[in-house]
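> forwarded from #structure-qc
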């Protein structure tokens, strides 16, 4: 047994392959793989150094637990580790640095090598670093990798742009991968259960906060509302230099979804098994409505907007 195998056996002997899935996250060194993992698992917004070797994390999202292999992209690692971990993975995430123009050809080569290691696992392609001015237009990336060819094949694929730093498109993409790996019985709902919400200016000033349900339920969730305010303030501070950003935080058995667009920051508290992608879409749609009211200096009632536009997603007492 190899040294790496002994480490895995010791640290993850309790990993039940029947109830969990393994995800191999690969890409050239510096593509942003570890930053993406930190964004998903820890809601950390900072850039990190490239991984040399392998990072292994356990990540729970909705009804599914992932064991995530974040594999370094340096040449020795691509030649020695990628094949082993990709071959046994239930899902593959390939991270592409859309600003690293000098290595585009190498990235394409390694991408297609990856497809030969595992021909069945769902594939999520993330063109990272859209927050950079040097990032190449996604249409050029589609042409470069010839995605149309892959779409015609039977493999389940998703190709999207994202920013590991700001979180844009990252959580919607992870929702897609989760749906590919979960059975219909394991997916709790396509809707969310909104327990509360926040409306802030990007300056950090709060315009509104609310909790749904009866006074008894609101009292129960008040500590969560207070914790969410702290996290939103932290998010606003970290993302102050970006016009758009989004994140997901696990707080106990609940999720806090935050979206920033221009001068507004909107947040929702939802159940732990609810799809983040829907919550993000709700917030982006509500942003347009709130921004219009704000521009016209009209009265804003964020809670009423949610209740009138998304009544199915409002939390109801059991």
């Amino acid at each position: 047994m190899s040294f790496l195998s002994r480490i895995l056996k010791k640290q993850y002997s309790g990993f039940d392959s029947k109830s969990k899935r393994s995800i191999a996250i690969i890409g050239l060194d510096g593509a942003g793989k570890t930053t993406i993992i930190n964004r998903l698992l820890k809601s950390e917004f900072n850039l990190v150094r490239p991984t040399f070797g392998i990072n292994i994390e356990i990540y729970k999202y909705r009804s599914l637990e992932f064991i995530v292999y974040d594999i370094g992209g340096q040449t020795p690692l691509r030649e020695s580790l990628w094949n082993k971990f990709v071959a046994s993975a239930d899902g593959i995430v390939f991270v592409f640095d859309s600003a690293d123009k000098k290595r585009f050809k190498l990235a394409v080569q390694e991408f297609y090598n990856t497809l030969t290691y595992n021909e069945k696992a769902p594939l999520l392609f993330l063109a990272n670093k859209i927050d950079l001015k040097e990032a190449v237009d996604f249409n050029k990336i589609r042409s470069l990798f010839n995605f149309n060819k892959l779409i015609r094949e039977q493999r389940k694929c998703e190709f999207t742009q994202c920013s590991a730093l700001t979180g844009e498109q990252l959580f919607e993409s992870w929702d897609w991968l989760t749906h590919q790996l979960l059975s219909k019985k394991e997916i709790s709902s396509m809707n969310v259960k909104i327990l509360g919400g926040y409306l802030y200016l990007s300056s950090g000033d709060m315009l509104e906060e609310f909790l749904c349900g009866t006074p008894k339920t609101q009292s129960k969730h008040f500590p969560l509302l207070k914790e969410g305010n702290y996290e939103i303030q932290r998010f606003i501070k970290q993302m102050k230099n970006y016009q758009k950003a989004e994140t997901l935080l696990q707080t106990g058995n609940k999720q806090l979804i935050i979206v920033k667009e221009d001068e507004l920051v909107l947040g929702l508290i939802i159940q732990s098994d609810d799809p983040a992608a829907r919550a993000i879409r709700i917030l982006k749609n509500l942003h347009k409505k709130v921004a219009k009211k704000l521009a016209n200096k009209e009265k804003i009632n964020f809670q009423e907007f949610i209740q009138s536009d998304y009544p199915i997603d409002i939390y109801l007492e059991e």
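QC bot note: Residues 1-17 have pLDDT under 50 and may be disordered. The CA atoms of residues 166 and 189 lie 27 Å apart.
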